[in-house]
Amino acid sequence: MLDPWNVTADPGPAAMEIAAILYPDLPALTAEIVDEIRERIPDYAVPLDGVFSDHLRQGIEEGLRQFLAQFAAGSPIENHNAEFYRDLGRSEFRESRSLDALQAAYRIAARVTWRRFAQIGHRAGVAPGQMYLLADSVFAFTEEMAALSVSAFTELSAQAAGAFEHTRQRLLHLLLTEPAQAIRTRLADLSLKARWPLPDTVACVAISEDYDTRRMISPVLDPDILADLERPDPCLLIPADPSPGRYQNLRRAFKGVEFALGPTVPLEETAHSLDLARQVLALKSQGVLTGEEHIRCEDHLATLHLLRDDTCTGILLRRALIPLSGLSPNQRDRLCETLLAWISLGSSVIDVAALLQVHPQTVRYRMRRLEEFFPGRLNDPDWRFEMQLALRTRQLTQRRPRQRPRDAAGRRKRATTARSTR
């Protein structure tokens, strides 16, 4: 004989009797569950008509029928029924409802179901032990259904997220490689799929190769930033002109990792912004640019312009400084320093002396020597402009440490090894 207080016993015939008592109330119970779900969960608060209404009612009533069948038989969800709950989870994802809403709906369904079942059982005089067993079965069945639906929802969500991220990375790649005149027409469809409206202007961020070896988790970035941090030269693409707040967010996200924010350019010139940002990182690694680990290219455009073409830079320097070639390095450095200050400060001996921290008479002596080396040129505007460019370039290039070829190769090797290890 079945012990009515043993809730772990096989329900047997008693369970079949309870299922028979409950079965007629399933349509009314379905309506009650639907009403409470719609009242308590905003995602389901839609007019009850059309495909959504039919799908919701059918899903709930089918679940109740399966529960009673399982309760009466004392068996787990069968494979074909399990697929039903997985489909329910997939359907919720495709309808763009949240996982929280789906789980909340299951909790409400379990609570309302047990409330009505308890009322019916009490009226029918069902033994307390059988009611405890029924309650345990209701909540266990609901957890099992929810787990199947959530698993399918999560799986589909992960697949969609991966495909979406791939689309955004592909958009970033094409923006950096497509011919300027073809960008807007060829990328319109891709930008729609990536949910990234093509802006008029953009700015790129070049991230140091140190990111590969120093990062622990991916940084939190604004959703409108396109990113590819897996490529050998990780980079970001920011729509429009980055605000000061956006720049500070980037600095927090990449604390401990060097990056350069490229200039804001028209969309068609995206690749130029990244190219300049990479050049700034290179100049910083060479010691030409010093200071913070995060740099704005727009603060160093003159330096970039002067050092952009090494061949042209070398020719400019040699031609401009030929008259000083016979001097010792120290003599040449002092005269170049004085001449650059003299041109930059409007030919003021007093200002030059203050800047160089020397006596004005020293400045006058050096300027007389420079007049001997460049007779009749010191007041020529064209010559002064070209010489200022040459001297400023010389000043920048002198900051570069001499780098052996194997040093650069070693850095590339270390970066490659770090990426492969990771």
TrEMBL record:
InterPro entries: CdaR-like_regulators, PucR-like_N, PucR_C-HTH_dom, PucR_C-HTH_sf
PucR C-terminal helix-turn-helix domain residues: 335-392
Domain called PucR-like N-terminal: residue spans: 16-176
Comp. bias regions, Basic residues: 411-422
Gene3D superfamilies given in the database record: PucR C-terminal helix-turn-helix domain (1.10.10.2840)
Pfam families in the cross-refs: HTH_30, PucR-like_N
Ranges for region Disordered: 394-422
Name of the protein: Helix-turn-helix domain-containing protein
Origin species: Actinomadura rugatobispora
